[in-house]
């Protein structure tokens, strides 16, 4: 099951980098650029499993939001404020952790896993690099190559492939793929999958009609050959 994260950050560039990194890691991400947006999301949409909270927001201080979060929802503060007093106060006020900007994405992800572990949720770092039969997929760098030749994928093709990489070796059902790549309202649109899988195979398989990497599990879903598997 995917964990839902509410990202509260008014810096547009940082928000979009974080959002994309978290989605690649398999999180469902809602974003808010202000206190008002965050409060509206907390009130009207599904409760997040974890909140990433910037402090300096255009319409107030993230600290106020921290106080209003429901008990049991871990909040990681992400802020440029690095005075000890601030950190201590927020940790005492219930923040699960405090990261001073700038921080590395991998440290953020590790601390998120730690915060969720305290709530009994055990996540493994997701696969972000895949290599098999000359195909190299680097999700973080957004690069796909086959026998050393860079392949251009459309954003949707890349999302679909990334979803399969994250569960390489395991079957991912049609429903899950459709929901994660296109959205929850598209879970019946299996023709999208057929179309996009055919496009991916045309770009990445030696013989698209006889795939060895992007495998069909009839009636269930698709599976990317595991890295150790012989295909
Ligand atoms: Ca800010």
Which architecture of the largest domain per CATH?
3-Layer(aba) Sandwich
What is the average of the pLDDT values? 91
Enter the CATH topology name of the largest domain.
Answer: Rossmann fold
Give the % helix. Answer: 25-40%
CATH evolutionary superfamily of the largest domain: Response regulator
Percentage of residues in strands: 15-25%
Number of strands: 14
> The biggest beta sheet, please?
5 strands, parallel
Radius of gyration: 20 Å
Shape: elongated
CATH class of the largest domain equals Alpha Beta
Low-confidence stretches: none
Structural class: alpha/beta
Give the tally of structural domains: 2
Task: Characterize this entry briefly.
With 231 residues, the chain is an alpha/beta fold. It has helices at 12-24, 35-44, 62-68, 84-92, 105-117, 155-166, 174-181, 190-204; strands at 4-8, 28-32, 50-53, 56-57, 60-61, 75-79, 97-100, 129-132, 135-138, 143-146, 149-150, 171-173, 214-217, 221-224. It starts with a strand and ends in a 7-residue tail after the last strand.
Overview of the structural elements:
- The protein has 231 residues and is an alpha/beta fold.
- The relative contact order is 0.10.
- The mean pLDDT is 91.
- It has helices at residues 12-24, 35-44, 62-68, 84-92, 105-117, 155-166, 174-181, 190-204, and strands spanning 4-8, 28-32, 50-53, 56-57, 60-61, 75-79, 97-100, 129-132, 135-138, 143-146, 149-150, 171-173, 214-217, 221-224.
- The protein has a 5-stranded parallel beta sheet with strand order 2-1-3-6-7, sandwiched between helices. A 4-stranded antiparallel beta sheet has the order 8-9-10-11, with no helix packed on it. It has a 3-stranded antiparallel beta sheet with strand order 12-14-13.
- The chain contains 8 helices and 14 strands.
- The protein folds into 2 domains: 4-117, Response regulator (Rossmann fold, 3-Layer(aba) Sandwich), CATH 3.40.50.2300; 129-224, Arc Repressor Mutant, subunit A.
- Strand 13 and strand 14 form a beta hairpin.
- Calcium ion binds at residues 10-11, 54, 56-57.
